[in-house]
Amino acid sequence: MSQQLFTNLAIFILSLLVGFEVMSKIPATLQTPMMSGANAIHGVVVVGAFVIAAEANNVALYILAFLCAFFAAVNVAGGYTLTDRMLHMFDRPKASKNDDGGDK
Amino acid sequence: MMSTLQTAASLVYLISAICYVLGVHLMRSPKSARNGNLLSGAGMLLAVIMVTIELIVQGKITAMGWLVLIAGLVLGVLYGVIKARRVEMTAVPQLVSLFNAVGGGAAAAIGIFDYFHMPTGSSLSLVFSIPVLLDIVIGGTTFSGSLIAMGKLAGKISGKPISFPGARICNFIVIIAMVVGAVLIIGFPVTPWYLGLVLLASLIFGLLMTLPIGGADMPVVVSLLNAFTGLAVAFAGFVINNQVLIIAGALVGAAGTILTLQMAEAMHRSVANIIVGGFGAGATGK
């Protein structure tokens, strides 16, 4: 196994564990915003769109790079805007009585 | 110069990864949720600025490359922001599903790109072909699956479980096609058709997975597909050797899975029951 693959695999597995750990029981009202927020985070794929656009050198690859950039931009820009809009609704009414601790 | 740039980039990506983790952490409580989302958004902005600097300094990208990149980004940002601003609050789940579909599509596009980028006839290493396969299979499945989920939530596709005679045989054929395509990709020199077979099978698999599930269960399915997209993005990170994709993708994959379980629990359903119920005999206990 190459050094690079091993490093990436270690990062992958440790990040999975962080993901499992950071997500404790969350109040039901926050489930949809959290889903949308997590959705926005995988919009990081937009970084990949930059990387492949730099490699493109024929028509098919340019089309793929364009599609990737478009899709990823919709994901990331829409995702954060929508999540913020949803969470904005928690600002105005007094925050619900759900405890904010979260960590058990 | 090159190595200074790489060091700087790695550090900036690390900081943005920390922003995502802290962002998710803050989003668990109503009081801090908005700041959590903003922090994660700041991390995203940082990553995008860094990769832009990388492209400029490396100077490898062609003018056409800039053109397609910027055109795609501008159109995508406009479309995404307008959709997100205008959507009725009751229609939020289907929009999340749409954003999830395009995320999966973008991840799959990276895998397809890298496969086509290889000279035809050259053979692939396992280290390269397996992440490419996982990226395309998971990305393709969530792309079509999320679009169906969106249609069902929006009422454009009947919310009833859609099943047809021979559905199980179709599932079987699709899975066989996927496995055959995967073996061809791993074991044989690069040929575009192999990839086409796997991609097509993945897209059909997404349809077959989502169609038999009832509309009421859709939010759970969207959350599950969201976790899948996270994994597809992580594998795209393996393909292009970019750690911020791996970290953020795996984070969403894991956190999304836990969230899915909690959402199913809130509905007094089990995830296995929802997914396999649709797939299996058809007579789901409802």
From TrEMBL, chain A:
One of its GO terms (molecular function) is NADP binding. It is found in: Cell inner membrane. InterPro entries: NADP_transhyd_a_C (IPR024605). This is proton-translocating NAD(P)(+) transhydrogenase. It is a multi-pass membrane protein. It catalyses: NAD(+) + NADPH + H(+)(in) = NADH + NADP(+) + H(+)(out). The keyword NADP applies. Residues 9-92 form the NAD(P) transhydrogenase alpha subunit C-terminal domain. It comes from Agrilactobacillus composti DSM 18527 = JCM 14202. It is an enzyme of class 7 (translocase). The lineage of its organism: Bacteria, Bacillati, Bacillota, Bacilli, Lactobacillales. Signal peptide: none annotated.
